Amino acid sequence: MDEKAVPPSGMDAGKGALLILFLVTMIDMIGFGIVIPFLTYLVEDLATEQDISEIGLWVGLLMTSYSAAQFLFSPIWGSLSDRIGRRPVLMIGLVGNTVFFTVFGLANTLLMALAARFMAGVFNGNIAVARAYIGDVSTPKQLASRMGLIGAAFGLGFTVGPFLGGELSSPAERWGIFSDTIFETNPYLLPCILASVLSIFSLLLAFKYLPESLHPESRTKRPKQSWGDTMRRTGANVKRMLATKNIGSLMWVTFLYMFGFTVMHAVFILFTQMDPSQGGLGFSEAQNGRIFALIGILGIVTQGGLIGPLTRKYGSLFILRFGSVLSGIGLVLIPYSSLDFVWAWMILITGCIAIGNGLFQPSSSTVLTSLARQEDYELGAVMGSQESLSSFARILGPLTGGYVWTITVDRNGFFDYHTAFHICGLLMMLAFLLSFKVESREPENVPQ
Hints:
It is a single chain. It contains 17 helices and no strands. By secondary structure, the protein is mainly alpha-helical. It folds into two domains: 13-224, Growth Hormone, Chain: A (Up-down Bundle); 244-434, MFS general substrate transporter like domains (Growth Hormone, Chain: A).
């Protein structure tokens, strides 16, 4: 048998195991996305009770805490899964999700909400472990299509999660059955309980149907590495890759794009829920949930149907540049939305953002893979460095957005509530301009 046709673990996963892995990943993303529509409202409620005025900063902190925890603890979960196996680590993560999503829904102080969100991020190292599981059980020919399952689970989970989070928020105001219950005093508990129930369901499926991908012999052969060693190695890899001309330039392009995109994560709902008399749209949690669901649907359509034909015709580098410009236009337009024909505005704006992001993300990975092969760099090291830098952008973005919103929202003139969105557009433009430093020696219009 050709060794290249054998998965690294020697075990080829059946369709059932891959389906379970898909569900685990999708449920993780539903849990992540389900809080997005109401997080700003929860922070505002708790801040009002505690007489705290820095609402934007706290929104940024809660969003950043999740990403920061994932960044810090994903290497630990990955290393632990190398030693004890993927299956138990996946199940530990699901148990953590079950507990801390419910705690988040019950939070009665901002510190409690921050701690719960951080701990949810700590235990949500499942994405990296799920990718490792697929790597264990897939041949080189199977790898790309099976990794695509993770991307599909991301897209579907991020579409369903915000929709459910918005529709199930403040149930006592919408359905009499929830009046005079805990759901009236904790208006965001119901979507959090749903996320916990889904995690329990996923845990039961994994326990019963998901086989281990690593044989005991494979685990004992893997060297132990401390968290500090892992972080030092990651930092050294990032520094080495940034020092290269083409790969380094592309990594900075992606960093700037992710930075701008995640600034929006903190300020989008701060704007849409703001009273119309102050310039906002006065949206409810449900309306915001529908917007994010629309973004998810458009992203799925873009990556599922548009990216292939467009790349074959124009090339990945051109599509990357076009995606950054389109995203930047959508982000800058957000605070200029008019209450007249508001949903027409929202469709235009979210279309630019979702399609631009759907074009940029896969094109960035495609160009990076091509450059790594052209310049004979190890693909794993390159992709790992890229992901580490993107993770840092996801930490920095919401904090920056929340802070800028806090110091500008009550001002008039050049610096006001528009400023954070202008920063998003500026970062996208910088990403676009820097992309011209990336040189590909392969024709961009070669059919793929």
